[in-house]
Task: structure prediction
Amino acid sequence: MENIKKIALIAAFFALFTLSFSTTTLLAAESQIKVYTGWNLIGLPLVPVTPYTAESLGQAINAQGGNCERIQYWDGSEWITHIIGTSFGDYNIEVGKGYFLLCNSKSIFTMTGASIASSAVSLHPGWNSISVPGPINAELAGIQINSNGGSCDTIIYWSGGGWEGHMMGMPFGDFVLTPGNGYFIHCSTASAWDVVQRDWITNILVSPDAFSPNGDNTQDTADISAQFTASCNWTISIRDSNGVVKRAFTGTGANISQAWDGKDTSNNSVSDGAYTYTIEAVDPATGSSIASVSGQIIIDNASPTGSITEPSSGQILSEVAAIRGTAEDLNFSIGHLYYGQGVSPTAWSLIGDVLSPVGPSAGLLVNWDTSGVSNGVYTIRLTVCDDAGNVRNIDLAVNLRNAVTTTINYSYDDLNRLENIAHDGVSTTYDYDEAGNIKNKTTE
Result:
C-alpha cells in the first residue's frame, strides 16, 4: 500500500523531538562516507579527533574533493541551517545525531577518529534524528527500544529522492541501519536506547560502485572493503536481480578487501545491470552470526549517448552561440564541451560542463562565447562520461566569423607618407615616398 502511504506521510513529520547522547569509544579508526549530489542524511561513524562544527565538517568534505553547500538539522520546531563559507549560524556536529548535507557533486569523505563502542540515545515523543555506531536491522532496533520501555513504531531513511522506511511488526520494508548514515525514529513516548557494539561490520565501501569490466584498464573491477570488530569467518555473496548468486567469496580476518571482476563462478562475464552484495560473518569463538550488510554494485559496459544537434556541421558562428544536443546515460556522471582549432585539433580548450543529463529530446548543453576566439575553422567536441568509466566523444566542425574592425591611420611629412592599417588583430604599416611608391612595409 505504497509503503503505508510513504510511512503515513512521515506522520506529521518531526513533531516534538529533542535528543541527548552519550558515547563510549574504542580504538582509533578510519571511516568513509559516500556523499552524493543533492541532499544526504548522514551521521558521524566515529568520534572525530577534533570535534566538527557544521563549517569545519563542510570544509573538510570540500578539501577532499567534495562540494558541500550547506548542513542542516531539525531542532524540533524548525530546520537549523549553516551555509558553508559564511561566518554565522555555525553549530557543533554531535556523534549519534543525523544531519542533512546539500552537495553539488559526488565525493567520498574520509575521516579518522575513535570507534564507538556504545551509544546511549535518549528518545523523545515524535521524530528523533539519530545515527548508529554499527549495523542493526530496523526491526531489531525497534524491538530493542520497545523492550526497554520505548514505543518505537517507525524508522525511516532518506533514499536521495524520497523517504523510505519500516513500520515495526510489518513483514516488509526492513533494512539495515549502518554507520555513516542518518535515520529518523518515531516514538510515542520517551525512552532510552543503549546501542552497544558487539561484533559489527563497519566501514563498508564499494569503490567504484559502478564499473565496466571491459578490459580497457578503466574501472575494470570493483573493490568491496569492510572491517569487523573482531576476526570473523566472512562470506560475500553477489546476487542478480532475481536473487541468484552469481559469485561468492569467503575468508577469515578482521578486514575485507575483495575485488570483483564482473565474472560469475564459471568465469563468465555477467550481463550489465544492478547486483546486490551481501556480507555475512560468523564469530568463530562463539559461533554467533553478525548482522549482515547489503548494498548495490552496478555493471555498465555501455557507452553513454550524446549528440550535437545545433549548430550543424560547417555552420558559421559568431558572438554567443547556443550548443544544443543530448548527453545521457543510466549512470550519467558529467559532460564536457571543448573546442580546438582546425578539423583535427591537437589541443582542446574547455567551453563548459554539462552537469545533468540532457535527453532524450535535445536541449541546451552550453552557450559558447566566441567573441574572444580568432576567426577560422574549429571543431567542437562533446565528451559524455558515466560513473562506470565509459566515455563517448562527438565531434563537429564549425566556422567562426565574428565581425572585425579595420582602422586606417595616416601621417605625413615633407618626404614621406605613413599608412597604418589595423585589421583583425594584425597591424600593417606602409611607408610611401613622394611618388607614392612603397618604400617599406612592416607587419606586427
About this structure: Confidence is low (pLDDT under 50) at residues 1-21, 23-27. The chain has four domains: 2-196, 201-299, 305-400, 406-443.
